Amino acid sequence: MSAPRKYGIDREIAAKLAAKYDVGREVEAREWIEAVIEEEFPFKEFQPSLKDGVILCKLMNKLIPGFTKIKPSKMPFVQMENIAKFLEGCERLGCPKHDLFQTIDLYENKNLGQVVDAIHSLSRHAAKAGCDVPILGPKLADKHEVEFTEEVLNAGKHIVNTFQYGYTGGANLSGVRSGRREIGGADPERAP
Fold first, then answer.
1. Do 52 and 72 meet the contact criterion of CB atoms below 8 Å apart?
2. Measuring CA to CA, which of 12, 72, 158, 188 is 20 to 30 A from 178?
């Protein structure tokens, strides 16, 4: 059974999401999950393999041992509960909420790009949390705090920041006339 045809803004949103989807990132995410859980996906396709949440729960149990009970089931609410448990584990490992997906994005195949992005984010945050896993994408930056001496802070108080205070880049007021401006010539009633 195919999905119902989309019209109007729904079609535009679906087209935008499809344009953003990167198959290469999906392959990287799939290979990363298979490497961490040490088993292959049950299906060739990405979304059907993750839809029931079992693979995701296995992944989370590898990252956080004993985190959740794996519940294989054909019941939709149990499958969505598995996905929700995975998302809870992602947050526990430090993934920001904006990097994660909604359960419906995976379960109903609404936004698979966000699912792939969440897995990439999870790899980085899991590695930062101390899990021995490879990192997908760029490594997370470490916080770098700088402390200034009192002398340096005082010296900075007397420097004028020309960018902040309206520096005009060398422009000046040459050619600007001050005083009364004549528009349309002399006033005929005020003629001498």
1. yes
2. 188
- Look at residues 187, 40, 43, 29 and name the one whose alpha carbon lies nearest to residue 118: 29
* Alpha-carbon distances of 68 from 77, 85, 100, 143, 148, rounded to whole Å: 16, 7, 18, 31, 46
Residue identified by tokens 């520096």 is 167
Q: Supply the angle between the helices 76-92 and 54-63 in degrees, to the nearest 10.
A: 30
DSSP 8-state class, residue 36: H
Q: What gap in Å lies between CA 118 and CA 108, rounded to an integer? A: 16
- 3-class SS of residue 104: helix
How far is Cα 115 from Cα 26, in angstroms, rounded to an integer?
9
Contact 49, 32 (CB under 8 A): no
Cα separation, 78 vs 183, in Å, equals 80
Helix (H, G, I), strand (E, B) or coil at 127: helix
